[in-house]
Amino acid sequence: MKCTNRKLTRWMLLGLLLALSGYGVARATTTISSGHADIFEAEYEQDGTNAPTIHLGVHTDTGHYEPADVLLEVGNAAYGSTAAFSPTIASLLGANAWILLADLEVAGSLGLIEGGVAKAGFPPGSVTFTMMAAGTANPGNFALFTSSSSFRLSAVGSAVETTSFSITTGHIHYNWGFSAPGTYTFDMKASYTDANFGALESAVETYTFNVIPEPTGGTLLLTAFLVGTSLRRRFFRS
Q1: Hey, what long-range contacts does 42-50 have (CB within 8 A, 24 or more apart)?
Q2: Which pLDDT belongs to residue 35?
Q3: Domain limits of the chain?
Q4: Who's near 23: CB < 8 A, 6+ residues apart?
Q5: Which residue(s) pair with 205 in the sheet?
Q6: How far apart are CA 151 and CA 145, in angstroms?
Q7: Average pLDDT along the chain
Q8: How would you class 70 by CB atoms within 10 Å of its CB: exposed for 0-12, middle for 13-18, buried for 19 or more?
Q9: What is the rounded distance in angstroms from the CA atom of residue 94 to the CA atom of residue 234?
Q10: What is the 3-state secondary structure (H, E, C) of 41-85?
């Protein structure tokens, strides 16, 4: 009987851990898996009476969402070789990884999120996005990086490596890379120095990504073909 009780306790603990690990996914009311999305969008809001505030959210062509209400799905079509990028990307993400590409044409062809970063309503000046923490249960490494393979954000498991970046333009697209399938969470905030009101910060918001396991060989070949075509097109244009 004692042995049975121990086994039952173990199964109960395992069930509790699984339930807690899926909490972020379960509470999301909206799943975004394709199409254009400004994943990190900072909005400058002022009512004319009080000091302005900054709100950090997710913006798509169909509306605005609170980060806590959104599950950002990285489809298995994102899985492919990192050879087209610099060795620094491969050293963090591995020879193959899940990447939401900055090339919108390729991302659209693969049916993936066309992930951007944006600021809306701000006076002139730069907005800084800061990763405050990466989830302790994150299954792999993460990188937000430019087409020239320069890191904007990065994390090794739960350890944040590249903590922040700034933008002055209203809208820009980066590559979003993940080294392993599973659920990732990141705590983010946006900040801005206002000419009249000084330093402003948003609340810290939690973003959740669900990375789907690697595809079959046929889909992987299609991904490699489309990425290669994109890089060749870029080469001949330059």
Answers
A1: 42/118, 42/119, 42/120, 42/122, 42/127, 42/129, 42/190, 42/192, 42/202, 43/119, 43/120, 43/121, 44/119, 44/120, 44/121, 44/122, 44/123, 44/192, 45/121
A2: 96
A3: 31-237
A4: none
A5: 188
A6: 4
A7: 85
A8: buried
A9: 24
A10: EEEEECCCCCCCEEEEEEEECCEEECHHHEEEEECHHHEEECCCC
Give the model's confidence band at 49: pLDDT under 50 very low, under 70 low, under 90 confident, else very high: confident
Phi, psi angles (nearest 5°) of residue 70: -115, 135
Q: What token pair was written down for 134?
A: 């990466």
Report the length, in residues, of the chain: 238
Kindly report whether the global pTM for this prediction surpasses the value 0.70.
Answer: yes
What region does 59 belong to: left with phi over 0, alpha with psi -120 to 50, or beta? Answer: beta
